[in-house]
Backbone:
């Protein structure tokens, strides 16, 4: 445990950030799972909506600084490629 006042405050704020980041990461994982389930089901309309939701969730995570920009770009690209393969 820290003894210095600023270190105690930093510990409290770090915990709040950790909990917030965990919530955002959970939303990203849930959106990814729903996208994969929609792709596996093969329904085009549901998959388009799931990919759109996943992309939006990734963008929000980038905006909050939870994941890096290029990571989000890569994941969105892969989801869109899977969507294109489903459409063929």
Residues:
């Amino acid at each position: 445990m820290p003894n210095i006042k600023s270190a105690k405050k930093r510990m409290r704020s770090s915990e709040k950030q950790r909990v917030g980041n965990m919530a955002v990461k959970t939303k990203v994982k849930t959106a990814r799972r729903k996208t994969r389930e929609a792709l596996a089901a093969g329904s085009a309309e549901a998959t388009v909506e799931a990919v759109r939701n996943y992309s939006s969730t990734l963008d929000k995570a980038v905006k909050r600084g939870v994941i890096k920009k290029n990571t989000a770009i890569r994941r969105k690209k892969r989801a869109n490629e899977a969507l294109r393969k489903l459409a063929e």
In short: The two ends are 58 Å apart (CA to CA). Residues 39 and 85 are 10 Å apart (CA to CA).
